[in-house]
Specification:
Blueprint: E1 16-20, E2 23-26, E3 31-34, H1 37-40, H2 49-59, H3 72-83, E4 89-93, H4 96-113, E5 121-125, H5 134-140, H6 143-146, E6 156-159, H7 164-170, E7 175-180, E8 183-184, E9 190-191, H8 194-207, E10 210-214, E11 238-241, E12 252-256, H9 277-290, H10 295-310, H11 313-316, E13 321-327, E14 330-335, H12 339-348, E15 351-352, E16 354-356, E17 360-363, H13 371-392
Parallel strand pairs: 3-15, 5-6, 5-7, 7-10, 10-11
Antiparallel strand pairs: 1-2, 2-3, 4-12, 8-9, 11-12, 13-14, 14-17, 16-17
This protein binds pyridoxal-5'-phosphate (PLP).
């Protein structure tokens, strides 16, 4: 039967009935260990009791009233995000692309307010992913994502990821900002060197640019710190988060500080759904768990142990895995075989993962996994690698 759903995804023929913690149960009765987490979204696992309670409580109270009115749960989430970060002010929306879009608009208006309207260009990096709107595909610069959608939104200059000299060269009289993922997700789990982020901060300060971080994928505890850039000691002016913040409920947020936080004034930006009571109740419940004492320590410890065990793969299966990358529970296996073949073999073995560019397989488990889940995943990874190594032999 032909599906009425638009055919804009290459979907696997697999449907799930329910989820529980790091497990997904398929319609055919099979159980999968979920190390994709809906692409780093269900960071607290499926149907976390605290999130279910917050969502159902709010569902019986008030769903939506619009930003015509004060929303106390929104004020509370903003203030908690601000206390836990560099930020003074937060704008809520419904997705990562919208959070980036808010930041991009903010950057232009910030420079305009400062009497520099000619500064509108943003320096971005090869391998970046910032979303699927017209502006965010231009920012990402991927030829595949841009194909067929000309004219490309003007205002982005892309340089190689990690190349500080190229950034310095790219800064011109029309440059407004630098936009970077502290850890590239879609680009293949590429971790920015702390010295690179420190260098970007210095370039931005020297030229009066906004430094904007895209933590849509790497934020909210994924790397073992609340935000990935906190490993580097560098503070941005603007930051987009989304995926993990809602634990599966659609939420995006754009965080800013200082003068940048006063840039978007009434009438200049907005959204109907963003920051509604239902979403904000879930976001606050996510923070209850992620900010609880010991939670991020657990992510760091689990990530280190898992990574140490993954590091043995390239020697065991040199024809399958070339290298292990990442930080915390944002890990990548750079493949020798085609990455989609490893994703398929892992699925056959009962482990769900996500492919990325640069021939990488992403491991993005729920942050609540324990050693038993990590061991169960490793067992499945060895199984899948052995199958592919046998085929190659
Ligand atoms: C997923 C992602 C986005 C886009 O988020 P959507 O919710 O799909 O719009 C932007 N930036 C990064 C780094 C992402 O991983």
């Amino acid at each position: 039967m032909a599906s009425a759903v638009m055919q804009n995804y290459r979907r696997l023929d697999l449907a799930f009935q329910r989820g529980e913690g790091p497990w997904l149960f398929a319609e055919d009765g099979r159980r999968y260990l979920d190390f994709g987490a809906g692409i780093a979204v269900t960071g607290l696992g499926h149907c976390h009791p605290h999130l279910v309670a917050a969502l159902t409580r709010q569902a019986e109270t008030l769903w939506h009233c619009s930003n015509l009115y004060r929303i106390p749960e929104q004020e509370r989430l903003a203030s908690r995000l601000a206390s836990a970060s560099f930020a003074d002010a937060v704008f809520f929306c419904n997705s990562g692309a919208e959070a980036i879009e808010c930041g991009l608009k903010l950057v232009r208006k910030y420079q305009d307010d400062a009497g520099r309207p000619e500064r509108y260009r943003v320096i971005t990096f090869a391998g970046a992913f910032h979303g699927r709107t017209l502006a965010t595909i231009a920012a990402g610069g991927s030829a595949n994502a841009l194909a067929g959608f000309d004219p490309v939104v003007d205002g982005f200059d892309q340089v190689p990821f990690g190349d500080l000299d190229a950034v310095r060269t790219a800064v011109g009289e029309r440059t407004a900002a630098i936009l970077v993922e502290p850890v590239q997700g879609e680009g293949g789990i590429r971790v920015a060197d702390p010295a690179f982020l420190q260098g970007l901060r210095a370039v931005a300060d020297g030229a009066g640019l906004i430094l904007m971080f895209d933590e849509v994928q790497c934020g909210i505890g994924r790397t073992g710190r609340l935000f990935a850039h906190q490993w580097s000691g560098v503070v941005p002016d603007v930051m987009a988060v989304a995926k993990g913040l809602g634990g599966g409920f659609p939420i995006g947020a754009c965080l800013t500080a200082g003068q940048a936080a006063r840039t978007l004034t009434p009438g200049s930006h907005g959204t109907t759904f963003g920051g509604n009571p239902l979403a904000m109740a879930v976001g606050n419940a996510v923070l209850d768990v992620v900010l609880a004492p010991g939670f991020l320590d657990h992510v760091r410890r689990t990530g280190e142990v898992l990574r140490a065990q993954l590091e043995r793969l390239p020697a065991h299966y040199p024809g399958v895995v070339a290298e292990v990358r990442g930080i915390g529970l944002m890990l990548g296996l750079k493949c020798v075989v085609e990455n989609r073949r490893l994703v398929a073999a892992l699925m056959d073995a009962g482990l769900l993962t996500v492919p990325a560019s640069d021939n990488v397989v992403r491991l993005l488990p729920a942050l609540i996994i324990d050693q038993e889940h990590a061991d169960a995943a490793l067992e499945r990874i060895h199984q899948a690698c052995a199958v592919l190594a046998d085929k190659a032999a």
